[in-house]
Amino acid sequence: MANAKAGCGISCAAILFIMLVTAIIGSLLWPYSINSWLVYLGKAPKVTWEQGFLIGAIPYFGGLCIPIAFCTWILMMILM
Length: 80
Known about the structure:
Shape: elongated
Helix content: over 70%
Largest sheet: none
Strand content: under 5%
Distance between the termini: 60 Å
Oligomer: single chain
Number of helices: 3
Radius of gyration: 17 Å
Number of strands: 0
């Protein structure tokens, strides 16, 4: 019984750690991606790192920040 409780605690800690890491990465990459497209469309950049942190903390969606930022980087080199 003690092993099951320890395994559950470790699993929860691992999930929270992964969410924290993706949120930190998202705090940098989501504002870059969204603000780049806003500037391209002629709008003012309004997304802050706090908003990127919250978007990055969403499971499965937060992990998309790396490929989206990479595609944005490539497309901005071509479009601008």
